[in-house]
């Protein structure tokens, strides 16, 4: 942990601050229009470069934010603002900023839902969330051994370093700007108290937090120490659980960039470990992250599916990657964490555990599960896809087959339905092929027929819907007839004269 420093009582800070306003010069508003240099007057409105008497404002939504990593600066007080749409302001190198009367950091709290938070200032009291009972506010911490949230009622409770909390207030308010006050956090932080009290996906959850007044990068090359910690982070996002890992990418808006003031969950690896450690330092901090959902590692051979209904949607990722396994692996996969809101549909795969991200070594058919707390009309669709040519959704209730690459699938759902509603099948190609025209592929009397008005010279391949090749051979002439012993759906691919045609056929 960072060395503790003397904290002035909040009321004393406020009195000193107010007395200084009278004699302070005009405030300085950062615009970042040129670069990250604090001492470049082009980065400040009206060219005002702050000194020890200046009140500084760092707004949200700027192209550049100040970086004092190699500089030393002063101001009287600094306000780091936030916005519900453009996010929070930011500063790097704040250990080199001397403030006469401390810092104030805004965070936006949305009404009527739980939000994960973390304090960016040193020794912040819980009373920062007490607004005189209007509205009512609830603050909780997460207890891993009991797998439960514990309410914090002591207003003098100090929000711990690098720790996440949940906050909620009455939904008759649209939103509140809450302001932390004190000394901005910086330096090295460690949580060596992370635990897994029992095996299984319901245990091992620990809520940590971003302690800095800037974004941090979960995929930063340097600055992290992760001991017995899975690679996926989980953040609640408007009632849904967003996830991110370097190998699995994003679900429900997850990103490797963790915002200022953001709490998040990590899981201690379920490999017999009972404790875990997470450490971070200044090297994980970033001022101006790339747009969300970007990643330093190109993600290939994957599909992101969405279940949609009632104006909400939920996402899963399925990926094929050499070196992964068919069982849950904390280096690759992500657990499914479920919403508490009845109107939000939920989609997941299930083998040994329930998956939000399921990474397996080779293409194979997977059971796909669907849940929702309300009856209605829902759909499943492809949101993103890479190097997978076809994704077939099989409705086990109706028997319908849909290639989700071409169209979404709509269905009627009742809460009494079996969640094991679907199977998903895959076909992978590495290059885009030129499609043949005027070729006919169909089944009749348990036989597969291939016909063309032009002479075919090439090969044919028959695959099951798991992408496994069943048979292959040469084709020469205007037609070919083949017997297939087992009934079911097959993918037929014909390659002739540099052109290709693929079709799904049911053989009965």
Structural class: mainly beta
Rg over alpha carbons: 28 Å
Average pLDDT works out at 87
Assembly level: single chain
List the helices and strands and how they pair.
Layout: H1 10-21, E1 28-29, E2 55-58, E3 73-75, E4 77-80, E5 82-83, E6 87-88, E7 97-99, E8 103-110, E9 115-117, E10 137-143, E11 148-151, E12 165-169, E13 175-182, E14 189-195, E15 205-209, E16 215-217, E17 224-227, E18 233-237, E19 240-245, E20 249-251, E21 257-258, E22 263-267, E23 275-280, E24 285-286, E25 302-309, E26 312-320, E27 334-335, E28 346-350, E29 354-360, E30 366-371, E31 376-386, E32 390-395, E33 401-403, E34 409-413, E35 422-427, E36 440-444, E37 447-463, E38 469-483, E39 488-496, E40 499-507
Parallel strand pairs: 1-2, 2-4, 3-7, 4-8, 26-29
Antiparallel strand pairs: 5-6, 8-13, 9-12, 10-11, 10-12, 14-23, 15-22, 16-21, 16-24, 17-23, 18-19, 19-20, 25-26, 25-31, 27-29, 28-29, 28-30, 30-35, 31-34, 32-33, 32-35, 36-37, 37-38, 37-39, 39-40
